[in-house]
Design a protein that fits this description.
heterodimer, A: about 325 residues, mainly alpha, ABC transporter involved in vitamin B12 uptake, BtuC, about 0% strand, B: Rossmann fold, four-stranded antiparallel sheet
């Protein structure tokens, strides 16, 4: 096919960029460590301060940046392709809001203070509950529109419950902790977080990645895709549960990080000839690039203030999206 | 053996019966026009044959019960051209046509030489190869229709079901389309196309099935199906029926005046 070479080139460039940003993320932090020293410390078995910083603080942070970014980019591209709608994004299914609610409940009840995985586990449970409700509402014959509407309803309910928790919070510190957690961040995460999120993300990625051809066929609409041999119920199952598993896990360990899943597919679509199947891997790499870059920037811009990752992606992402809408408004009308 | 055999087909949409006991066979070599007034059940019939609508009665594809066929297997027997012409993303014309080969390729495999030849032939047949690299979303309505027809041709299935394929085409491309479908039938495929243009249907189809309110009113060669009385009772129109170059001419003239 035409453009096959260009597609491989785009993927290769994104891959190199992802790798470069991954190492950049490893380099940036309050402790000034030279590149050679840090790389040696990364693989050192002896311990010591530098090894501790590299292995326990920066490595999990960079890995999570990579995984969360890839999750957001991949799920955004998959949902836009499945729903045939450029406004679709990972938060659409209510998974992010429900995972947040789970985290808020963990903080509110003090469960998060009991052991390190308390918060992400309850957040994951929230994501699972959300997707079960959405899928039960939509049923097997429900279709995409029912899924969206159910997702909006679940999102709204979860946000309302989160607001209630803030409203009734026992002291201002609990409220502040909840607020800060919800802004989204990769600060102070450990390898335990990586091991918790990785299985869910890998399963979710595999489900979403297998959608490629079906999404291509869906370019011509649901009936046309079905007539070309696409099993629409299977597509719905993979899209909903793949998003839930990967985005649920991402939200559980990093909080809500907006705009990456919405904007990255838009940025890359023209580079892959708009083909949904090609957008999936490109968008996963693009999401990883954007999140690694953003997470590096928050450390550079305000090293002392703990600028939250979700705040930066929204502040940069929203105007960028506005510009994209302005640029492409003729096609979107 | 018939490519498609429908027996006593019943289907409802939203609790309202739309198909009320239809039976017919389609054999290789036929170009069948599916005609009937708005709401007669033409589109529902096509969608039911494809398994998109719950139904009673039997549908057999190539002698096999269609309900036992998976989506992929069915796609190798029937290509379908829906009425909807919405293309979601600005993919290239060639990419759209190549989607027709999807069902033949293993996952993640690129199209092979044979696939590319079939795609090329489909594009030439519909005269769209001149703008193969243009984004399909930026085409005119008629161009887009031809791209989607080429996509269905590229599926290269024995049976093609087309829902209003001629709508929105200029006369020259309408005739090109009808000739293409005739040629497909001549090559041993079968085509069933729903149509509103009785003139086109009469001139080019080898057989017409006239549906009204969910039942088959007439089924046979165009001259036998399109009689003045029948057009009066089904469409409530007066029609000029003539002949030119050995083929029938049907031209609606006026509404039947209520007496």
């Amino acid at each position: 096919m035409i453009g096959g070479l260009r597609f491989r080139l785009v993927l290769a460039l994104l891959g190199v960029l992802t790798l470069a940003l991954f190492f950049l993320s490893l380099m940036v932090g309050p402790a000034a460590v030279a590149f050679g020293d840090s790389m040696r410390a990364l693989f050192s078995a002896k311990g010591g301060a530098v090894a501790l910083i590299m292995q326990e603080i920066r490595l999990p942070r960079a890995i999570l940046g990579l995984m969360v970014g890839a999750t957001l980019g991949l799920s955004g591209a998959a949902l836009q392709g499945w729903l045939r709608n450029p406004l679709a994004e990972p938060a659409l299914l209510g998974v992010s809001a429900s995972a947040s609610l789970g985290a808020v409940i963990a903080i509110y009840t003090g469960f998060s203070a009991l052991f390190p995985l308390g918060l992400p586990l309850v957040a994951l449970a929230g994501a699972v509950a959300a997707v079960l409700v959405v899928q039960a509402m939509a049923g097997l014959r429900g279709g995409a529109l029912t899924v969206i509407l159910a997702g909006i309803a679940v999102s709204s309910l979860a946000s309302a419950m989160t607001a209630l928790a803030l409203n009734l919070s026992p002291n201002p510190f609990a409220a502040l902790e909840i607020m800060f957690w919800m802004l989204g961040s990769l600060t102070d995460r450990s390898m335990t977080h990586v091991w918790l999120a990785a299985p869910f993300m890998l399963v979710g990625w595999a489900m979403l990645a297998s959608l490629g051809r079906s999404l291509d066929a869906l370019t011509l609409g649901g009936d046309a895709a079905a007539s070309m041999g696409v099993d629409m119920r299977r597509v719905q199952f993979l899209a909903v549960f793949g998003t839930a598993a990967s985005v649920g896990a991402a939200t559980a360990v990093a909080g809500v990080i907006g705009f990456v899943g919405l904007v990255v597919p838009h940025m890359l679509r023209p580079l892959v000839g708009s083909r949904p199947s090609r957008l999936l891997p490109a968008s996963a790499l693009g999401g990883a690039c954007v999140l690694l870059a953003a997470d590096t920037l928050v450390r550079v811009i305000a090293p002392e203030r703990d600028l939250k990752l979700g705040v930066l992606t929204a502040i940069v992402g929203a105007p960028f999206f506005l510009w994209l809408v302005y640029k492409t408004r003729r096609q979107m009308l | 053996m018939s490519l498609l055999s429908v027996k006593n087909l019943h289907a409802s949409l939203g609790g309202k019966p739309v198909l009320k006991g239809l039976s017919f066979n389609i054999a290789a070599g036929e170009f069948v026009g599916l005609i009937g007034p708005n709401g007669a059940g033409k589109s529902t019939l096509l969608r039911t044959v494809l398994g998109f609508v719950p139904h009673q009665g039997s549908v057999a594809i190539d002698g096999r019960d269609a309900s036992t066929m998976g989506a992929k297997e069915r796609a190798r027997h029937i290509a379908y051209l829906p009425q909807e012409r919405d293309i979601a993303w600005p993919v290239s014309v060639e990419t759209v046509v190549a989607l027709g080969r999807l069902t033949y390729r293993p996952a993640f495999a690129a199209p092979d030489h044979a696939d590319r030849q079939i795609v090329e032939r489909a594009m030439r047949r519909m005269e769209i190869h001149g703008f193969r690299d243009r984004p399909a979303t930026e085409l005119s309505g008629g161009e887009k229709a031809r791209v989607l027809i080429a996509r269905a041709l590229a599926q290269d299935a024995p049976l093609l079901l087309a829902d209003e394929p001629a709508a929105g085409l200029d006369p020259s491309h309408q005739i090109t389309l009808m000739k293409t479908f005739s040629a497909l039938a001549g090559e041993g495929h079968a085509v069933v196309a729903s149509m509103h243009d009785l003139g086109l249907a009469a001139r080019w189809c080898s057989r017409l099935i006239l549906i009204d309110r969910g039942v088959i009113v007439a089924d046979g060669p165009p001259r036998a199906v399109l009689t003045a009385d029948r057009l009066r009772s089904v469409y409530e129109i007066e029609t000029y029926l003539g002949e030119a170059a050995g083929r029938p001419i049907v031209q609606p003239l006026d509404l039947v005046l209520a007496v």
